[in-house]
Amino acid sequence: MHDLTPITAFGLAEPTVFVTQSCQLAERPRIALASVAARLGVDEACRAVITDLLRADAPDPAAWLASDIYSAFWMGPDQWMFSADFPDVEDIVARLKTSFGETASITEQTDGWVSFDLTGEVEAVLELVCSVDMRTRSAGYASRVSIHHTGCFLLIEASDRVRVYAPRASAGSVFHGISQAMTSAAAR
Amino acid sequence: MIINHPLLGPRDSAEFTYLGDASLLNRPDPDTATPKDWHDYAYLRDNPAGLHRELWFHEGGDRSWLVVTRNTVTHEITKVELARDVARGLASDVAGMGTKRSGG
Amino acid sequence: MADHGTNHGTHHRTHGQINRLSGGQIDRNKPLSFTFDGKTFQGYHGDTLASALLANGVRLMGRSFKYHRPRGPLTAGSEEPNAIVALRSGAYQEPNTRATTAELFDGLEATSQNRWPSLAFDAMAINDRFSNFLTAGFYYKTFMWPAAFWEKIYEPIIRKAAGLGALTGSADPDVYDKGFRHCDLLVVGAGPSGLMAARTAAEAGFEVIIADEDFRFGGRLNSEHEFIGDQAGADWAASQVAHLGTFSNVRVMSRTTVIGTFDHGIYGAVERVTDHLRTSAEGQPRQILWRIYAKHTVLCAGATERPIAFNNNDRPGVMLAGAMRSYANRWGVSAARDAVIFTSNDDGHRTAADLHRQGVAIAAVVDTRADAPSAHEYAVIAGTTVTDTRGRLGLNAVQVTDATGHSRWLKAGSLGVSGGWNPNVHLTSHQGARPVWNDALNAFVPSPSLPPHMSVAGAAAGMLSTHGALHSGVDAACKALEIDPRTLPALPKADDRPVTQSAFWCVQGSERAWLDQQNDVTVKDVKLSHQEGFRAVEHLKRYTTLGMATDQGKTSNMGGLAVMAELTGQPIADVGTTMFRPPYTPTAIGVLAGRSRGKDFHPVRLTPSHYWAKERGAVFVEVGNWLRAQWFPIEGETHWRQSVDREVLATRSSVGVCDCTTLGKIDVQGTDAAVFLNKVYCNGFAKLAVGRTRYGLMLREDGIAMDDGTAARLAEDHFVVTTTTANAGKVYQHMEFVRQCLCPDLDVQLISTTESWAQYAIAGPNARALLQKVVDAEFDISNDAFPFMACGAITVCGGLRARLFRISFSGELAFELAVPARYGDAMMRRLMDEGEEFNVTPYGTEALGVMRIEKGHAAGNELNGTTTAQNLGLGRMVSKAKDSIGSKLSERVGLNTEDGLRLVGLRPLNPKDKITAGGHVMSAEGPVNAAHDQGYVTSAAYSPTLGNMIGLAFIKSGSERIGDRMRLVSPLTKTSVEVEVVSPHFVDPEGERQRA
């Protein structure tokens, strides 16, 4: 076991939280992420593995779904992002490679993204940071969105709960943008 | 503008970056093309007042390249296709072009 | 609702409000105190600044733009040209706001503009006496010569004399937001048609947004004395708004101006969140710029009344008749206790009746029509016109002239003018559609080629009756959303009198008759424009500045066109109208910027070692969005060069560490990964062995170099490609283009992993010794086991997965170590601890730059979008054995001439001389000019290793001129330095160090 101590994207040991009267934005550490892209010509086999892992068909465009171990969202044609809440996030690529074999290209993404959960009256906040339409989109929607000029992924879990994946290097800016919007929404 | 993405539905054009004329898909065959073919491919573009097929990249989305048929006068968008599908159609039209690989 | 206490004596605080009438939609239980030019006044909740000032007997509210003529409000809305004031004070002061839309709050401070020393006595009013010299085209004619005078003399004088309010010069202390909303139906305007359109859509279950610029919904219903069913119009409107409020699928946006129509149903709207409040809550935005995505839109923007031009029609007290009605009915205010009405249509008579009902004495209704309707309560003078007015700071008499030319003066403090109503077509033409002339209405109406999915209802569509408005609102919603109108309840009864409008624009013989009051354009100016040949409508506009003020000519364009039409003998339909463009009303720059100001102008990307570097006192530099350590000063260093020189020398003599995470990293996988890289790089990758890295050069299809980097082969089907920091996004996009558009049948998958890995360059003779202290023992990184350009997956510090690449940008023995980003901070600290024995030195981007110049490596300055592989001295890299992007066109003759530019090094003959980047290289003798240009310097630095400045340059036939003496000149900085052309590899040209 190595002896290096990780820090969050904010340079801290503990996750960052921001709260207003109507909303909470909380960093969720230790979520393992890996992208899965079907190899050419074997996308059916790749989808079969996904079905196996998620106990459901591979997520359609703009969708995400979860099973007991993994959840996954659609990133692009024949490409998905898998996430899992592993005790050791380092396992995810090895485990997925075992499952997918030669049917997919797996790329480590755990440290590329910082996860945030935004909960509460999210519509009033999200309408100030990105163009997602919370009134017509429902739980299960997933899309890349631009927040504070930064490409992030947004997953709707419920009408009062969304997950945001922000690129790690820009996580501070994204957090700042969302928390400003939370303050603004709470003051209205 | 709103671009009706073939997979994701209507999306704000602000999510895309623009490249230009979709004739860039027609890269000359390196084995047979003449210098003039290469010159025309690299430098010559039509600039129609009317329907124009153009390449847009969904940078703020699924990272697909799209071929968007747009009226440059009215901005009406009449057709949106995945560039990869268009390119595959081209590849099967033109024998011997591009690198072939049988899937699986 | 409408009658909040009609002059009950008890809480009477109309103290000073000499022109406050009864009634109105104001709350007399909420008196408000405000100041205008330092003097304190009282008004009521529900007032605008203009209505409250009028109530207090203040008609004079501003001075005109050019002639500094006294002006009062012409209108009661956002079309106002005259009553332009500054609101608030200090850094919060905002100039050029319309008193007619400024919502009154307790403590509001307002100041008049464009006057000195005071509003009542303005020294610049002298301009009015010299009006003969200040006619149309005045600027063009007067200040032609000498040219040098323009900037220093004329412009400052004109700017001081003419104009509007001044900016505070302080940063705007307010915050602004931007937001996004979506709907099935956007209703622009909440008058009778808008309320009905919204209600119809709401009840059918659609997502509806209804927006109105006013703080009170109802549109003209709030200004009229009329009934819908058995309710007063204003009460009916309030009940409709309350009804809409019960729907969760309706968003009611008051104080929100839809400012622009954009492609495919996108609308811009500005919501004023706190402008009506004395103070805002912490973090509360002052305004929000909404981007509204509407599947359908109904424009219910109403109509704007148009004036009639006659001499001296601009005195305070002269108003549009409909505005007088608004003040009387909505705010319980009159501009004076007596009034004359001048009208060309029946609408003016409504004003007379309403004012009379409110107790204002009507001196006469002057109707241009011979067949004007008569009235019992006051005199109607048919077939007559108003020909002049009197009153220095406000109206006191009106001259009336009949058809025979007989004139007389009528005493009155206010004059209502009605020339009919123009539909507010602005938003229909933001995308290019020109309004069309309607002969029946004598007005422009929306073009039939509306923006897609937009329809127009109510007065904006030319339906000038309330009945017509209600019905057209319902119809528009039904058509847009495919609602069956038979399922809807019957509409209440409303005013359905036929509306006719005559074309009467300008009283005969008018000269100093104002058409555009905000820009001081008179009938005489239009005549001059015609006389001098500027007759086309767009020329007229620019020559006279008609319609070019902040009100965009809402009350003036029509009159100007009509006068020009008459002069040219054309019908107005043929003269046409100028275009309307966003924004519909003046918009604060702050709201367009939103949060993107100051340090929030763009997002910031932090490297994994950022917090550590900050602790070390690093100086940071912005590289794109990245913040990178530029150098790390230590105690005693007072100049950046001291730090940079030390970092370079320490690295070259022992070991240095630099965060190079910012380089783009693209994961390339698939069975065709190598074939794919062969396509995107001009050099070959198919034969690169697993565990090896190769430098690669990407060309554009035209043969010009695009980017360079390395590709490391981690497995047969797995590469990691690096790009330069600046081009990371562009290269990824290009690679996706090649993958999806040119090679769609290759099995290759791409994804960026730039931020996943913290990557550190460890360079210098002790690099390996340092690394051996952290790399786990089972990985042999000796020169034999892990030679130059090796790569592989390893573990460090007892099992942390990592990647190691033996690549060198500095020219030293060097490695790049990558660990998961969250361990980047700990890894850097560990390297510093373990490296203490080697005096390990962190180095920043400056030292990095110096070392790469010393080594002769090309970077962004050399890959500048004009250079080829040949120019870079990398011509032999372009493989002829395969096709790659750009390989064919890089063979063009023009790019391969004998005397082409080649990358060389430059060294000053006098070691003290400077090498200037951007300087040009000339032969040692001969003229210094563009014709004799031999090349240019791309990069320059002081080399602490060599003890003098060095440079990289592109020089014609450069590789054959090594050893030549030339001149480096920079005419801009008056530099002329003797230099020697040398190899670009200043340090270790044989590359022995990096292979050690």
From TrEMBL, chain A:
<dbReference type="InterPro" id="IPR027266">
    <property type="entry name" value="TrmE/GcvT-like"/>
</dbReference>
<protein>
    <submittedName>
        <fullName>Sarcosine oxidase, gamma subunit family</fullName>
    </submittedName>
</protein>
From TrEMBL, chain B:
<dbReference type="GO" id="GO:0046653">
    <property type="term" value="P:tetrahydrofolate metabolic process"/>
</dbReference>
<dbReference type="GO" id="GO:0008115">
    <property type="term" value="F:sarcosine oxidase activity"/>
</dbReference>
<dbReference type="InterPro" id="IPR006279">
    <property type="entry name" value="SoxD"/>
</dbReference>
<dbReference type="Pfam" id="PF04267">
    <property type="entry name" value="SoxD"/>
</dbReference>
<dbReference type="InterPro" id="IPR038561">
    <property type="entry name" value="SoxD_sf"/>
</dbReference>
<protein>
    <submittedName>
        <fullName>Sarcosine oxidase, delta subunit family</fullName>
    </submittedName>
</protein>
TrEMBL record, chain C:
<feature type="domain" description="SoxA A3">
    <location>
        <begin position="511"/>
        <end position="595"/>
    </location>
</feature>
<comment type="similarity">
    <text>Belongs to the GcvT family.</text>
</comment>
<dbReference type="InterPro" id="IPR006222">
    <property type="entry name" value="GCVT_N"/>
</dbReference>
<dbReference type="Pfam" id="PF13450">
    <property type="entry name" value="NAD_binding_8"/>
</dbReference>
<dbReference type="InterPro" id="IPR029043">
    <property type="entry name" value="GcvT/YgfZ_C"/>
</dbReference>
<protein>
    <submittedName>
        <fullName>Aminomethyltransferase</fullName>
        <ecNumber>2.1.2.10</ecNumber>
    </submittedName>
</protein>
<dbReference type="InterPro" id="IPR013977">
    <property type="entry name" value="GcvT_C"/>
</dbReference>
<feature type="region of interest" description="Disordered">
    <location>
        <begin position="1"/>
        <end position="25"/>
    </location>
</feature>
<dbReference type="Pfam" id="PF13510">
    <property type="entry name" value="Fer2_4"/>
</dbReference>
<feature type="domain" description="Aminomethyltransferase C-terminal">
    <location>
        <begin position="902"/>
        <end position="988"/>
    </location>
</feature>
<dbReference type="GO" id="GO:0008115">
    <property type="term" value="F:sarcosine oxidase activity"/>
</dbReference>
<dbReference type="Pfam" id="PF01571">
    <property type="entry name" value="GCV_T"/>
</dbReference>
<dbReference type="GO" id="GO:0046653">
    <property type="term" value="P:tetrahydrofolate metabolic process"/>
</dbReference>
<dbReference type="GO" id="GO:0032259">
    <property type="term" value="P:methylation"/>
</dbReference>
<dbReference type="GO" id="GO:0008168">
    <property type="term" value="F:methyltransferase activity"/>
</dbReference>
